[in-house]
Write a structure and sequence with these properties.
There is one protein chain. By secondary structure, the chain is an alpha+beta fold. The protein has one domain. It is built from 3 helices and 10 strands. A 10-stranded antiparallel β-sheet has the order 3-6-7-8-9-10-1-2-4-5, covered by helices on one side. Helix 2 packs antiparallel against helix 3. The longest helix has 18 residues.
Length: 247
Amino acid sequence: MDDPNAEKKPCFLGTFSVKYIQWLLGVKVMKIFAVSFVMVGVITLFSTTAKAALIPIKITAEVTSVVDTDGFLEDRVNIGDIITGVYIYDLSTPDSNPSQYRGRYDHHAPPYGITLTVGGFVFMTDPGNVDFVVEIENDIFAVAKSYDAYRLESENNLPLFDGVPIKSISLLLIDPPMEALSSDVLPATAPVLSDWESKRISINSWWARRYGITIDGHLTSAVLIPEPATLALLGMGGLALLRKRRV
């Protein structure tokens, strides 16, 4: 029988996770972040991802259009600026669309979602309320056009520092010749951008006819990251901390 008065040893996994993040980020992690991250991040990632097949994809884009009617971006995001980020989906997610040409893959838990940074701002899926979908459309014949499409969207996102809601973070690839895809199955690799004619990424905060922020960009790179566990730790935890610091 275990001695109830015996001194309990600290959790090596939790301690290692926090110190590893401190080293990688190069910042002093606050105690409240450390505790919450170990509780949520370690428990969630190490208990649930054993059954998942994480696909983390690092992306870059160039800003092509900025609308900021209320000045929330403080002129810190301009045409030509570089957007960097990552999105993560689960390859084992079931297809909820019965069509053989359209695949819909819904994600409702972390670490799935998207995180983008530009101009010192971080726009990211709310890890506490994930609503993230990936749609794969293969050989779509419509009245006026035909196409392949690769799209993803996050509809529940963390607000800006002053409470401005971010309604949507999305990515859309379109290939009118219908040669980019061969099925509506979730791909296990990053999209080959040269296969796509249109490559758009968008951040949108239009809500209740207020908070007019729209940032559009042209996707310039997409690379599969080979270490999904490390990415999940940094992407959903580390960037949340950097966002509060308003780098």
